[in-house]
Amino acid sequence: MTPSTSSGTGAVSSGTGAVSSGTGAVSSETAAAPTAASGDVVVDVKDLFAGYLPGINIINGANLVARKGELIGIIGPNGAGKSTLLKAIFGLVKVREGDITVNGESIVGLKADKLVQRGVAFVPQTNNVFPSLSIEENLQMGLYQNPKIYAERLEFVTGIFAELGKRLKQRAGSLSGGERQMVAMSRALMMDPSVLLLDEPSAGLSPVRQDDAFIRVSDINKAGVTTIMVEQNARRCLQICDRGYVLDQGRDAHTATGRELLTDPKVIGLYLGTLGADEGH
Q1: Contact 171, 134 (CB under 8 A)
Q2: What is the mean pLDDT of residues 238-242?
Q3: Which of 172, 204, 209, 269 is most buried by its number of CB atoms within 10 A?
Q4: Mean pLDDT across the stretch 55-67?
């Protein structure tokens, strides 16, 4: 049984259009990539090239490192390849060059079930629950590879999303957009992943629900889950992440801590606008 549109077939908005070079991408030289000890690195993306169509790359030499326990934010203009990068990590977009390792082992070319076994969990932007199933059944689907740990993982998940524990029998299709996001993230957490990949968790939500989504992401990370989040709401993303990557034309144009990016004049001018400047001071 699969959701109405599986994560492998959902449309990708971020990889459909190239970004004009006139935007003047911020040089990555101003903030070197982290050099954590290998034992501390959970995800390591090196010189990645990936795309959907033969001969056309959306990701053009991207690099990314996520250490254990970090919350990483990926921001950038529309068409920069943000969602495509996440989907390349989860094996939904063909990798043509470069490497992706999780806990020191390459995962390039692995199918979704093998990636889950390696500790990679992915929550797509839309169509990310089984609407005809109850909340409880959705969570059980997240543990199809290891159902014996259901009680243990349910306790962990409802510790973060207490509301779900009171509504386990409710059909997921009757939930609001924000509530569905909670179920989707909870299902992904059921397998105790090494890294959680979130594709625009605030997309399509009301302002109040958007704030709640960011609070929940922060709560997940504080519970010890390494998290990589793509977000169009760049300002809010940078406020909660440990480090951020600015993606432009499929490359990591700039990386620094979230707070540093919020106050960087070039990042503000190109990607955040006056709203970023106001929040940064």
Answers
A1: yes
A2: 97
A3: 172
A4: 97
